[in-house]
Design goal:
The protein is built from nine helices and eight strands. It is of the alpha+beta class. An eight-stranded antiparallel barrel has the order 1-3-2-8-5-7-6-4, surrounded by four helices.
């Protein structure tokens, strides 16, 4: 395994980052994140993203808003890789998710509106898939439950070789210890895939208020390396090569037009989540015609 490949983990955990929590059962600031993250991934057809997808997704948001649905979600649009949108919803538990499903099914009006929205949205999509992840608080580092001011999300996925889960956990704890020693600004949430993909898959979510946060994370790399030390770095390199067989990172923009977020997020940053429509321009009054000259 090359040093460049193993650096993928370092860099993905070195960026000033945060994570989201659903307004449903949202914990107080500084507490642990809810346990269950459900991600729906939509791949749009060529030329069918952007404003067209915003329009069809707004039907879901409007239906959820009218129904005062308590479960919220965040929409991410790809800035790298294939054109796609991710929709992230947190639940305190699987039981909470089950209760939410039952509540929606019992609401005939909401169910009908969501069905119509699904049909219209489906015309724009190549494919859809879903995955479910479980929170790994011991492998996360200072995760934030409020990202109301975030604009971007880095999503990194790692696949751990069968039988090497203990090595992965050692890697994560080495990274956490080095960040603590270096005093970097890094923070992230790590989750373990439990449904919808290969076992041994871990997801790291890092939210950025701006792309300057990404620059800052790279700039902190030397401090992190110094904190790890030469011997620690050698151990990390070998352990990474023995443990990880695949990694992948992508960058997404948070899309407020496709997101259904809690009112507290809107109040925290209204210009982003619910911008006011520009005032209509009042047409200028036509210029007065010059008075006719009196006939001689």
């Amino acid at each position: 395994m090359s040093k460049i490949s193993s650096l993928a983990l370092i860099l993905s955990l070195s960026v000033a980052a945060g994570t989201l929590a659903s307004a449903q059962d949202k914990p107080a600031a500084g507490s642990a994140l809810p346990n269950v993250l459900q991600i729906t991934r939509e791949y749009t057809k060529p030329g069918k993203g952007g404003a067209m997808h915003d329009k069809t997704e707004s039907a879901f948001v409007q239906a959820m808003t009218r129904a005062k649905e308590p479960s919220h979600y965040l929409a991410l649009n790809s800035l790298s890789g294939k054109n796609r949108a991710l929709f992230l919803t947190w639940y305190a538990s699987f039981d909470a998710w089950d209760k939410d499903i039952n509540a929606v099914n019992k609401n005939a009006v909401l169910s009908a509106e969501l069905e119509r929205a699904n049909v219209a949205d489906g015309e724009l999509l190549d494919s859809v898939d879903q995955a479910v992840y479980y929170n790994e608080p011991e492998l996360s580092y200072r995760p934030h439950v409020d990202i109301s001011h975030a604009r971007y999300m880095e999503v990194s996925q790692y696949h751990v070789k069968r039988g090497h889960d203990s090595g992965w956990r050692e890697l994560a704890k080495m990274v956490i210890a080095a960040h603590q020693k270096a005093g970097t600004s890094a923070h992230w949430a790590m989750l373990n895939l439990v449904f919808g993909g290969d076992g041994g898959t871990y997801l790291i979510l890092s939210a950025d208020d701006s792309m300057a946060d990404i620059d800052h994370g790279f700039a902190e790399g030397k401090a992190f390396h110094d904190a790890m030390g030469d011997e620690g770095w050698k151990r990390f390199e070998q352990l990474y090569a023995d443990t990880v067989d695949d990694s992948h990172s992508e960058l997404f923009a948070i899309n407020p037009k496709q997101s259904y977020v809690d009112d507290s997020w809107v109040k925290a940053d209204p210009d982003f989540w619910k911008p006011r429509a520009p005032a209509a321009k009042v047409p200028a009054a036509p210029a007065a015609k010059p008075a006719d000259k009196p006939k001689q």
